[in-house]
Design goal:
mainly alpha, flat
């Protein structure tokens, strides 16, 4: 969390840091709740823990690919 706070301060500046930090905290909480309820919903539908962990790993891989793609896109836009 400390690195997220520093990066938020770099992007938004010290004056807007509390505003952006609040938005990031809210987004983290919503994402955590959504994932938790989603995985517990899969368990209630009869999936076992192994299958739900495979689903969670798939979501993680998609998120990492999306983050990498956005990073490369931003890096290319800054270079041109």
């Amino acid at each position: 969390m400390a690195l997220s706070s520093v990066r938020t301060g770099e992007i938004g500046g010290s004056g807007r840091h509390p505003h952006y930090w609040g938005i990031l905290t809210l987004g983290f909480g919503v994402g955590l709740a959504t994932g938790s309820y989603g995985l517990s919903g899969l368990l209630s539908l009869g999936m076992d823990y192994y299958t739900t962990s495979v689903v969670a790993q798939g979501v993680l891989i998609v998120a990492l690919l999306l983050a990498g793609w956005l990073f490369l896109r931003r890096h290319q836009a800054a270079g041109s």
